[in-house]
Design a protein that fits this description.
By secondary structure, this protein is mainly β. It is 0% helix and 22% strand. It has a domain of 70 residues: Sandwich (Immunoglobulin-like), CATH 2.60.40. Strand 2 and strand 3 form a beta hairpin.
Length: 129
C-alpha cells in the first residue's frame, strides 16, 4: 500500500463514538482505493463502509439580490442526494471563512444581515453536518 496518495482521512468523527467519516470530491473515471486502519493494534476487525455520491450544494446565482437596505439575499439549493440542512459561509478575502449562525433550510433563502457595511463579500454553501 505504499503507492496510495492520501485524499482524505479522519479519526473519530464524533468524540468517543469510534466512527470516522470523510468527504472528498471525486473525478469521473478515477479509481479510488480505500485503506482502513483500526489504529488500536487489536488486530483484524470488522468495518462497515457506506458510500454516498452527491452533487454539492450551491448558491443559485440568478437569485442574488442586493436589497435597498444594503443586505444581500439569495437562494441556496441542495445538490443531488438526500435533502440536507445547509449552512452558508462568508468571507471578505476568500481565505478566512465564518459560518452563519443558523443553518439554512434546504432550498431556502439566506439573508446576510451584516452585508451592508462591507464593500464586498464572498459566499459558499456547505452541509451543516
Amino acid at each position: 500500500m505504499t503507492n496510495l496518495q492520501l485524499v482524505a482521512s479522519n479519526d473519530n468523527w464524533q468524540p468517543g463514538d469510534g466512527t470516522s467519516r470523510v468527504y472528498f470530491p471525486v473525478t469521473v473515471g478515477t479509481v479510488y482505493s480505500l485503506m482502513v486502519d483500526t489504529g488500536s493494534g487489536d488486530g483484524p476487525g470488522t468495518i462497515q463502509l457506506s458510500i454516498r455520491l452527491t452533487q454539492p450544494s450551491e448558491i443559485l446565482a440568478n437569485t442574488v439580490l442586493r436589497l435597498p437596505d444594503g443586505l444581500v439575499s439569495f437562494k441556496v439549493a441542495n445538490g443531488t442526494g438526500p435533502v440536507r440542512q445547509l449552512k452558508v459561509q462568508i468571507s471578505t478575502n476568500l481565505i478566512d471563512w465564518t459560518t452563519s449562525p443558523a443553518p439554512v433550510a434546504s432550498d431556502g433563502t439566506f439573508t446576510d444581515t451584516a452585508a451592508a457595511p462591507a464593500p464586498h463579500r464572498f459566499y459558499r454553501a456547505i452541509d451543516s453536518d
